[in-house]
Amino acid sequence: MHNAFPHLLQTPAWGRAKCTAHPSWSWYLFVKPKQAGKFEQTQSLPNPSAIESSVLILERSLGLGQRLHYIPRGPYVDWRDRSAVEAVLGFIKDFARKKSVLMLRMEPDISEDEFDSAPVLAAGFRRVKDHIQPADTVRVPIQKSDDELMGGFHKKHRYNIKLAAKRGLTVRTSVSPKDVTLFYNLLKKTEERHGGVLHIHHEDYYQVVTRELAKHNMAVLYIVEKQGRPASASLVLRYGDQAIYMFGAADYEFRRDMPNHLREWESMRDARDEGLQYFDLWGATMRNDPGGGIMRYKLGYHDSIETLAGSFDWSPKPLRYKLFRLLDKLRRKL
Per CATH, is 8-133+309-333 categorized as 2.160.10.10? Predict the structure, then answer.
């Protein structure tokens, strides 16, 4: 099924937020209007119904004069329309050549079972195992009544949501810098508890992303408290027809009060009330989840894993690309 909207990671708001938070990156947005002959660079997205395709390209230096192009959850195109797919693939390859990049990576926002890889492989892209964004996810359909929505959860989740409310936990929303700091402090506690495997960003990253996206009503913090003390928090991003649970953290001291369950419940209800269709729990099989606890938690809201099309690389410099991949594998092992 063709997505009605580009992914949030394919919006100019995300480009600005990402590159403000990490100045080593720069961004380019191109749009091909319907019935138009060529792609045009722009700073804003028109109504998706008016475009054939669009692509947000992130660029970063790899050192030694080499550059990378990355297309997160994109490009935006009807993957069933082969001519449109061939046009956008041809364009991003031409732009990569023009910018003399070492490699281009894209991670399309489409389910694996709906994705035709033939035109991608024919264009010279190769599928790679490593990925930057999650390779799969759990997307909860939320346009339901409270009873129907909660009825779709695992019975233990339903119990825990009610338990959290009984124990006096409350949920509030915010985008203030002070509350981003509160959220970051919870992230640090979570990172320490997991032995450093989460690889969280610096606080400035979350401050910038929240501030820049909140300007467009695309980001909100959910903070769960008990008697005024923070127990849990998440940063939820919103665009198009879905909300995305992008980052979450909790204080282990409050684990028996089930703050995360109440947090997700209120997040989903708010997204539904704003007219959104889905709540994306952002990853099912996670690198930092060797015991599978995160997966079980997410599947408790919707028992279905959506595997995405995967990661695809293309390079105008095949020999240098192979050497880079080899050195990168050695670096990771070390």
Answer: no
